[in-house]
Amino acid sequence: MAYKRCRIMNLIIISILFVAFYSFYRIISDRVCYCPRAHDQLLSLPEETCRQIRNSIILTQLKKYNHTFLMEQIKELQRCWWSVNGNALEDIRSELRACCNAGSNLLVTQANTHIGDYITYGTNRDKRIEVTENIHEMLPKVSPFPDKPFRRCSVVGNGGILLNSGCGSDIDQADFVFRFNLPPMNYAGDIGTKTDLVTANPSILHTSYSKLDEERKPFIDDLKAYKSALIVMPAFSFTSNVDVSFKVFHTLQDFESQQKVAYFHPDYLKNLALYWINKGLTARRLSSGLIIVSTALELCDEVTLYGFWPFSRGATGKPISHRYYDNKVPKPGFHSMPDEFFFYTQMHSKGILRLKIGTCY
């Protein structure tokens, strides 16, 4: 009898150890690396080749890189084992927190802005707006971001490279999903369905919703695709942005929407621009893509970019649309998407973030 009990206890202990070991393995493997899928492993490159490609990108200077060369290199890196470099990520995270601190300062809140304060506009530092009691009541009380980093984040650009990617499921597995400029959400297989934060450029409210003077209900109906996502707007970047940005707040309030709106802090955007200028970027303004990627690097332990591809041809050389839902090209001169993409490829090569190009199946 004692022998039987002992045998049962041994089996229980072995089972517990097996479950614990398997759970630990899944956590570690899920947390630190993205490996080629089974059918991709046949196409994976030797580690030495991958190391040479990474070093080539890391050592390339921004002013000397060639677009075609960069496209080819990052395409090859998709066939390489990728893992988070915790030290490299922590280095850039520390730099970003020291200069900008997205966790506290990305948004204008009641905690960092008080009644009677003045907010200086981002693009016209000679003009400012006083924070009245009414404006103060529109602001979130505190930053919506937790002190503890999100484990995994997806940053979903709108590039045509997402079409037929099959990346929707991968995107939705993240703990937090960032999107840009209220994109159409009817491509679930490629872009996913989850949204936690979405930016909104005031220009889309002018062109699609009559500045919210008349098209309030269609606006609210379209927002349902983002469920309870936080909407973030650059209300204080231009004086012309203020009115329509405030209308978004009142529209959401009037319709008792589940979404909330918040506003980028222009001081955060100014400090972040200086950070990237010191890294060599000379664009007139940072794109919302680079702003959110920088934010994600502060707020997330693992960052994967989808839909970031600034070229008119895909990784296979075939023409692709500018965005996954249309081919409208933005006005030139404001942003420098290829240069920003250069930094993404370097960060991918260093293990700071993962730049996903191509299919996810």
TrEMBL record:
It is found in: Golgi apparatus membrane. Keywords: Disulfide bond, Glycoprotein, Glycosyltransferase, Golgi apparatus, Membrane, Signal-anchor, Transferase, Transmembrane, Transmembrane helix. Signal peptide: none annotated. It is a single-pass type II membrane protein. Gene3D superfamilies: Glycosyl transferase family 29 (3.90.1480.20). InterPro entries: Glyco_trans_29, Glycosyltr_29_Sialyltrsf, GT29-like_sf, Sialyl_trans. The keyword Repeat does not apply. The keyword Amino-acid biosynthesis does not apply. Disulfide bonds join C153-C300. One of its GO terms (biological process) is N-glycan processing. One of its GO terms (cellular component) is Golgi membrane. GO terms for molecular function: alpha-N-acetylneuraminate alpha-2,8-sialyltransferase activity. The chain crosses the membrane at residues 7-25. Belongs to the glycosyltransferase 29 family. This is Alpha-2,8-sialyltransferase 8F. The lineage of its organism: Eukaryota, Metazoa, Chordata, Craniata, Vertebrata.
